[in-house]
Amino acid sequence: MHADIRICRAHDRPVYTLSDVCPKCDEPTANSAPAPFDPDDPYGEYRRKLKRRERE
Ligand SMILES: [Zn+2]
């Protein structure tokens, strides 16, 4: 079964956790599924911007 990775955005960098609360600030975390980026690919957004520029 796929474990839900949850995310706390109350930091400079999003904190990922499997817990319902952030281990750093104890705030409730949100499901990371709708996140517009891949946490395993921190440069994905940068690369997509480059691609977009190439098309123009
Ligand atoms: Zn937090």
UniProtKB/TrEMBL annotation:
Coiled-coil region(s): none
Region of interest called Disordered, as start-end residue ranges on this chain: 27-56
SUPFAM superfamilies xref list: Nop10-like SnoRNP
Domain of life: Archaea
Keyword Transport among record annotations: no
GO biological process, one term: pseudouridine synthesis
Keywords (A to Z) from UniProt: Ribonucleoprotein, Ribosome biogenesis, rRNA processing
One MF annotation (Gene Ontology) recorded for this entry: snoRNA binding
Pfam families reported in the protein's UniProt record: Nop10p
Recorded GO CC terms: ribonucleoprotein complex
Cell cycle recorded as keyword: no
InterPro entries to which the protein is assigned, alphabetical: H/ACA_rnp_Nop10, H/ACA_rnp_Nop10_sf, Nop10_arc-typ
HAMAP family xrefs: Nop10
Function, in words: Involved in ribosome biogenesis; more specifically in 18S rRNA pseudouridylation and in cleavage of pre-rRNA.
Family: Belongs to the NOP10 family.
NCBIfam families listed in its UniProt record: PRK13130.1
Protein name, per record: Ribosome biogenesis protein Nop10
Organism of this sequence: Halarchaeum salinum
Lineage of source species: Archaea, Methanobacteriati, Methanobacteriota, Stenosarchaea group, Halobacteria
